[in-house]
Amino acid sequence: MSDRRIAHLDMDAFYASVELLRYPELRGQPLVIGGRSVPAPQRQADGSLRCARLRDYAGRGVITTATYEARALGVGSAMGLMKAAQLAPDALLLPVDFDAYRHYSRLFKAAVREIVPQIEDRGIDEIYLDLSTHEEDSASLARRLKDSVAAATGLRCSIAIAPNKLLAKIGSDLDKPDGLTLLGMDDLPTRIWPLPVRKINGIGPKADQKLATLGIRSIGELAAADEHWLCGHFGQHYGRWLHAAAHGLDEHPVVTHSEPKSVSRETTFARDLHARNDRTELGQLFTALCERVAADLVRKGVMACTIGIKLRYADFSSVTRDITLAEATTDARMIRRAAGECLKRVPLEQRLRLLGVRASHLSPLAEPMQPELALD
Prior knowledge:
- This protein is of the alpha+beta class.
- It has 4 domains: 6-12 and 100-188, Reverse transcriptase/Diguanylate cyclase domain (Alpha-Beta Plaits), CATH 3.30.70; 14-95, MutS, DNA mismatch repair protein, domain I (3-Layer(aba) Sandwich), CATH 3.40.1170.60; 194-246, DNA polymerase, domain 1; 262-374, Dna Ligase, domain 1.
- Helices cover 35% and strands 24% of the residues.
- The protein contains 13 helices and 16 strands.
- The chain has a 5-stranded mixed beta sheet with strand order 8-9-1-10-11, with helices on both faces. The protein has a 5-stranded antiparallel beta sheet with strand order 12-15-13-14-16, covered by helices on one side.
- Strand 13 (302-313) and strand 14 form a beta hairpin.
- Helix 4 (98-113) crosses helix 5 (138-153) and helix 10 (227-234) crosses helix 11 (236-246).
- It is globular and about 60 Å long.
């Protein structure tokens, strides 16, 4: 039996919870964060707060997160706001404030590091911890981590401790909000196998759909499937992984440091844009993306040798192009020039719904250089 103890700590409805610190009178109401050009709440003369509502939104925006009251109405992350408005028209709608979310992200991670110094950072609101060498019992350690996060941020989190990352990730979602979940291999039949297969991190929509067509909807049904049969339908590598994951097996370590492989920024337009008719607006957005990529490179202490673009057309088809520089750079003008060269190599007759800029083949930041373009 493995002695590993892996924790997954996930902040509860993180963006919405940060907003509720700022606007505590909104607690208990269905609240959605997301969208473009959403007005911030306005304090009225009588002290009340005036907020936008989902029914008033028009555009292509998607939900970034929602409070549990909003989720109870059927809306959730990544859902289009126009669709969500049909389900919960009276839900309150607030704009995204990434500066505030990054601030609280730093606070909760610093609080955790005071107890467990090495963490695997999985994003703005979740981390993995390897607790295998800690002598404190799991329940006490989990409570101490949760209390530390609450004291530092005023926010709640859910934490699960399990023999591996796969089970810890599933477990942190079982008892939300403010959950504390301890899982062992003995808990598989009662707590894991009844869950839908999509709860396994690594089973996406396409695999979920294919499994459903094969009569497999729960993790337990997947665990009961023959490994060779799964390999026949999904290939050797993925079939073996599906079989192992359904039995709660995962040997992936907690990785406390990794080098970035690429830096990218992209934006989906509020309306489809045309390269000729909307040239000025597109040019401004294109330049801004390049400037943000350049700033991200400097912040991460790296420079890029390859610059690429991504376009998604109105019909949802996509195209990418890239170009390799003679020398690595962090210079926004050079990135803009290289990305512009890529843009010349794609058809621009269709209207566009998304534009992205990507920097890859990264190396540690050195002295600023003035590279020459070398078309790949």
